[in-house]
Amino acid sequence: MIRAEIDVSGVVQGVGFRPFVYRLAREAALTGTVSNTAAGVHIVAEGSESALAGFLAGLQSVPPLAVVHDLKIKKNPLSPADRHQDFTIARSVSNGGKTGPVTPDTDVCANCLRELFDPADRRSLYPFINCTDCGPRYTLIEETPYDRPLTSMKMFGMCRQCLEEYQDPGDRRFHAQATCCPDCGPVLTLTDNQGKALAENDPLARVVSLLQAGRIVAIKGLGGFHLAVDAGNEEAIDLLRKRKGRPDKPLAVMTADPRTIHGFADMDPEEETLLTDSRKPIVLLRKKNPFPLAANVAPGNRFIGVMLPYTPIHYLLFANRQCPTMIMTSGNLSGSPIAKANGEAVERLGRIADFFLMHDRPIVTRADDSVIRRSNGRTHIYRRARSYVPTAVQLHDDAGSTLALGAILKNTICLTRGREAFISQHIGNLDNCDTQGHQQEIIRHFTKLQRVTPDLLVHDLHPDYPSTRYALQQKDCRTIGVQHHHAHAVSCMAEHRITEPVIAITLDGSGYGPDNTIWGGEVLLAGCDDFTRMAHLQTVPMPGGEAAVREPWRMAVSHLYAAFGPDFSGLPLNLLRQHAKELATIITMMEKGINSPRTSSCGRLFDAVAALLDLRYSATYEGQAAAELEMCTDNSDRGNTAYPYAIAEGNAAFTLDTSPMIRALVNDVAENIPPGIISNRFHNSLAGLFTETSMKVRAASGINTVVLSGGVFQNMIMSRRLSELLAAQNFRVFSHILIPANDGGLSLGQAVAGRAMSRKL
Fold first, then answer.
1. If you ran DSSP here, which 8-state letter would residue 290 be given?
2. What stretches of 122-221 adopt beta strand conformation (E)?
3. pLDDT tens string 678-687
4. Which residues lie below 8 Å from residue 163, measured CB to CB, with a gap of 6+?
5. In the chain, N or C: fewer CB atoms in 10 Å?
6. What percent of the chain has pLDDT over 70?
7. All domains in the chain, ordered by first residue
């Protein structure tokens, strides 16, 4: 007889792993125990060598949501007197410094869906049905190990029938921590916008009728509230936009099934696979023309964000198909975190929503929907949140216990535990006090879940960022600053486990440079612990500072001044006629350096071109002008026509002069060349410019690996064309897959770079 002690690490808690082990051991006639520990699952298995061999082979076929990272086995001879009498599931052991991965939230499984719509099942039409193979996880876990008393389900005592299922090893709900039923679980309530409960026998049916009538309903989901309206009702959407303070930004929709999607968007098999995956993200799909939904769902955009139902509530809302497609946008005021608690939702959203569909299961941590786009045969994550978090990114090297605080925009945090990096869900923009509080909330939750006490805090170099101030206030922990674009470079390196130096093309809207200018069009030689700026776009003034971000016409004026000199005002351009009264003031500001910081930003160059093409003079959300420039590109113009540029060699770095590009582009505008063709030529020009620059850097350094990072690479035209040109020159090219290219992925690079830099101090 042999006793095997087996420690399993990975995603093995809250996914039916212990019941699976129990059944496997009983089938093999083994005795022993299985229990959750802080680090994973511990198994004691006792029996003959052959029985143990069969048991260990069976461990390879894990439950649907389980992922085994490591399995350590220690075998010892066993005397009959020491043998367990049976195989049992033992009490969880919660002590220990390490904890296993927390399972992300997941879609409703096929078995639960079948029960949901089975009139004979006791959970028929119950909006909180779940089992060990599906349902809420991360958003209801307070701390590990994953046991009911450590989740927001602790307030719901199981009824006799649920308890019997929970204790029955042969049942699908054996040790399913969130299991419940209509007799013992959460309940739905429909309220008015003051939070007063309305007497409704069927609140879900009432919500559908309200949506059909053009009303706005706030619906509580897994990680917070959605604001819902009928996606075919233009007036209702206009009202939602006005109340929410979101006049132009595209709104995501949820629809009944893939068949419905084919009515308003094009979808290839890979995109359909993403949509129907158990994570159920928002997927950006190309709109059909004509577009049958309301025109103001996604104005100025060729794409629409689409997701399918992923909670029982959603499936029930779409069951009768009376409202087959609904706007489902984050339940927040523009710029604020998504609301998660009932009272908070009424307070914050009461002036937006007409009604609230609530339930009494608390949400422990907020989580927006994840956003994904397929392009060039690859999947690109724009926003990493629900169902992708808190899955770890595996690192090449040990990053210790590091907490990185991310950027000011699209903020995330990153917590490392050795070679695991846990990147938080999308937090938002830290220029909002509520979002700063949300960040602190997630820091507390993350460190508690992963049982990590950071010994290094990493922040951006910008001295006025809220995260920088927060880091410097923590007197009991070392701090280190990492330059914004160095962090971008290392984020892509870390994702691909690259340790040798690379050429990093980092293009975005802004990042604080060590020379006190605003960077954003950079070519770096980067390692994890250091970087050298090898090239950058020419710097131009940002007249009005942040006002130039909100009003792209200002950046157009700045680039015109750089390209033509002070006499540019006579050019035959609409934007100059539209803003003739402001030109003298803007010119004075730039010439005298009044509130006109200099920038090498590629994002601001995109803004300038969008304004020159009369696409966008003012922006109501970040990246709007650049996104509309991408959307207008004439894809039928497949020529390689490009505008000229110049690369000037300086003492410290190459300067990439776009003035020739602007002059040629303005000439095309004057000759009434269509904006789509001009945009195509502009994209070709930038791709050519950065490819030629990379070749010069390779010649000087001998480095042949290029990483692409920064928000500009959300532009799939730019990403594809630059990647293709670099590959044609035999570069090894890497871009983001697991995390966003934008600032949402920055915290990973901060954590890895900060730890590497700290080791040199």
1. S
2. 188-192, 217-220
3. 999 999 999 9
4. none
5. C
6. 99
7. 2-89 (3.30.70.100), 102-185 (3.90.870.30), 188-371 (3.90.870.40), 536-685 (1.10.357.160)
